[in-house]
């Protein structure tokens, strides 16, 4: 089944033209690792690869363009999300995936939409894209990615790796004296209730 109206080669060409080199390499790395995780956790590998390629397609847009696209297209973005422009590329990337590249699969679109902040009760597919974004090998810190990836080999690996990602994110935000989105705390608390990670 085709999940996108253009070829993979055309999409990669578009990414090369619209992302900087580091972001392009990150997108390739995310797609490749998402595909590996999809195979391991019995999810659709083709969909995971496409979602990985597309997840940051709006990342290099100027903040003003992201805000303009959110408002112009009435995207479902919460007020709390608008407090930081760092995550606004996620809903815009999902919009571009749907309206520019013809992606209609809800799982792909949702995984792109929520790959930055996450949400309560993510599906396994959404967790895979979220985790692959954080720990792909091409641009991410080796010590960090290894600290997360080790949990993927265990029982309930997706939830354990996800919780580790949130622990590290919260720790980093505290160390940098940055605000923590209430949604991040809610997701962390829910994962703590169902997962045991040291």
Pattern of helices and strands: HHHHHHHHHH
CATH classification, class level of the domain at 8-140 = Mainly Alpha
Structural Rg: 16 Å
Give the CATH architecture of the domain at 8-140: Orthogonal Bundle
CATH fourth-tier homologous superfamily of the domain at 8-140:
Hypothetical protein af1432
Tell me the β content: under 5%
Strands, total number? 0
Main sheet, how many strands, which sense, barrel? none
Task: Give start-end ranges of low-pLDDT stretches.
Answer: none
Fraction in helix: 55-70%
Number of helices: 10
Termini separation (Å)?
41 Å
CATH topology-level name of the domain at 8-140: Hypothetical protein af1432
Based on CA inertia axes, which overall geometry fits?
globular
């Amino acid at each position: 089944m085709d999940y996108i109206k253009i070829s993979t080669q055309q999409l990669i060409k578009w990414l090369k033209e619209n992302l900087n080199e580091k972001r392009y390499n990150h997108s390739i790395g995310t797609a490749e690792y998402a595909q590996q995780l999809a195979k391991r956790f019995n999810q659709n590998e083709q969909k995971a690869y496409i979602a990985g390629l597309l997840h940051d397609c709006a990342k290099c847009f100027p903040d003003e363009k992201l805000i303009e696209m959110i408002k112009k297209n009435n995207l479902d973005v919460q007020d709390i999300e608008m407090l930081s422009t760092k995550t606004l590329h996620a809903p815009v990337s999902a919009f571009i995936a749907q309206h520019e590249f013809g992606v209609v699969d809800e799982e792909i679109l949702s995984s792109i939409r929520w790959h930055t902040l996450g949400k309560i009760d993510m599906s396994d597919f959404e967790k895979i894209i979220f985790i692959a974004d954080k720990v792909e090998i091409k641009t991410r810190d080796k010590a960090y990615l290894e600290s997360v990836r080790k949990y993927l080999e265990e029982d309930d690996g997706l939830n354990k790796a996800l919780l580790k990602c949130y622990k590290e994110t919260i720790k980093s935000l505290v160390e940098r004296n940055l605000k923590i989105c209430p949604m991040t705390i809610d997701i962390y608390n829910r994962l703590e209730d169902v997962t045991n990670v040291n």
